Amino acid sequence: MLTFVRTVAADAPSSAVYAFLADFTSVNAWDPRASGARRVEGDGGTGSVYECEVAFAGRTVPMRYTVTRLEPDAVIEWVGESDLVAAHDLIELRSHGGTTVVEYTTSYRYRRLPRLADRLAARSVARLCDDARAGLQSALDALGGRARVG
């Protein structure tokens, strides 16, 4: 299993950051490898199911994500599944003054790869996580601007 942790800070209250990220479809705005995220079951709360396409290694893979935990202004957790990979994403929010620190932990288990291939893929997956972190930071910077204005 590959696990990566990325941290960003938002100049916005945790309630605004939580509202943005708890809606899984926001992944379209900040993860450059994800597209077409849409809710297919539920009301957006725990147990809701989303589908999206994820680009990796020149392929686009359909993924199905289920919201497994939501703690308002604090924790968001999803698990994703496809024929090729199982994913687990944990987002933890911490407020510090007017800033919200977002710690994003993501884990991947590739179903058809031996454990050695996991290690070989680590560098490529780390780059994807870095790109997602940059996209998340950009989206949260914009959110902070909206939070200050509105």
Structural class: alpha+beta
For the biggest β-sheet, the strand order reads 1-7-6-5-4-3-2
Shape-level CATH architecture: 2-Layer Sandwich
- The unreliable regions are 146-150
Q: Separation of termini? A: 42 Å
- Can you tell me the CATH topology? Alpha-D-Glucose-1,6-Bisphosphate, Chain A, domain 4
Measured by DSSP, the beta-strand proportion falls in over 45%
Categorize the overall geometry: globular
Question: What's the CATH superfamily, by name?
Answer: START domain
Q: What share of the residues lie within helices?
A: 25-40%
Our count of domains comes out at 1
The ordered H/E elements are EHHEEEEEEH
pLDDT averaged over residues = 83
**CATH class category name:** Alpha Beta
Q: Output the number of helix runs.
A: 3
Radius of gyration (CA) equals 15 Å
Extended strand count: 7
Largest sheet properties: 7 strands, antiparallel
